[in-house]
Amino acid sequence: VSSLNFRSGDTVANAVVVPVPADRVVCVFVYGVADVLVDVTGYVTDGFTRVGPLRVVDTRASSPVGAADGSGVPLRVDLSSVVPADAVAVAANVTVVLGSAPPERGFVTECECGARPEQSQTNFRPGDTVPHAVVVPVPADRVACVFVYGVADVLVHVTGYRTDGSTTVAPVRVADSAAVSPVGVPRAAGI
Question: DSSP string of 110-145?
């Protein structure tokens, strides 16, 4: 299971939820050559149960998910075989495989089934294979949805779940610089 894919010259980021062994040393394996930065953004001390990673979906054997115009039917992911009835959140690694996007980029969002949110949890370009970590609410029926704007095969690996002490929310965009003006400083030539 990959947590991050890259091409030569890429600078890419992702989040992962990983178990920490008693010696508190976590290993990073790179297939290729790369500089790696690891930033810890938090931890869970109780109420989180690590599993797998357990593959619960692989659409490569059936058909891709989504539609070029974003109107595709969501992929329903039944979590009942890997999370208990009292689970309130699930951690998963979701991978977009060989996406095709309209016209240049597509995106994927994982959430409870129902109204499709417009917030992306990962973006992809045509031909990309992009994994990303998510933590999403688990509804009472233990079925979550993967929405693809564009077309792609999808892999879902469950890495853990939370049964208590969690508050999850549907994606809510709190900032969008594209609506106002770009953020940052242009890079000087040659840098």
Answer: EEESSSPP---SEEE-TT--EEEEEEEE--TT-EEE
